[in-house]
Amino acid sequence: MPSCSWFPPVSSYHLPDINMFSKSVVVCCLLAFSAATDVLQCPGKNTENLKENVQLSPCKKPPCKLKKGTDQHITINFTPNEDVVELKNRVVADVFGVDLPFVGVDGNSVCDKILTADGQKASCPLKAGVKYTYKDSFPVLEFYPNIEVKVHWALNSPKSEIICFETPVKIVSKK
Questions:
Q1: Which pick of 31, 70, 97, 157 has the fewest CB atoms within 10 Å?
Q2: 52-75: b or e for each residue (b if 16 or more CB lie within 10 Å)?
Q3: Cα(154)–Cα(163) distance, integer angstroms
Q4: Model confidence pLDDT, tens digit, residues 48-71
Q5: Under 8 Å between Cβ of 64 and 169
């Protein structure tokens, strides 16, 4: 049988090496899969690397299924272009052309949920040009209707919108 010089003969494989390699591939795939959520730019915006900077969990692919009675987790990496004294969520669902706020999430201060790039606790004021991470979770309330909508999520300072994205979601009953 011909042999390939770039690939060792089968007899030289060690079973633990193959198992370790298989586990490494699975872990890397899971990390890559969970590292970003396929979100959309907000109209009129062009945020660089937006898809790599937003993670919704659990959300495998749009539309994200939000199960009533569960928590949704969000991570947003961002770098403000200005000093930020206060930062609040703006979270609305476009329901038949009408923006309805997500009760318990929209309008909340997020200053206590900000981390530095190295994972240390940060808080407002935030400095321009410094990379931060916003991490939070929120309940999907039982009274939300079963519906598919587009969600607009923004982090706003009193002066401007720091970062925003949109994503289709489907609110479903827990099974």
A1: 97
A2: ebbbbeebeebbbbbebeeebebb
A3: 6
A4: 778 889 999 888 788 999 999 999
A5: yes
d(CA 96, CA 99) in angstroms, rounded, equals 8
CA atoms within 13 A on the CB side of 62: 15
Alpha-carbon gap, residue 37 to 84, rounded angstroms: 26
Tokens standing for residue 150: 């587009």
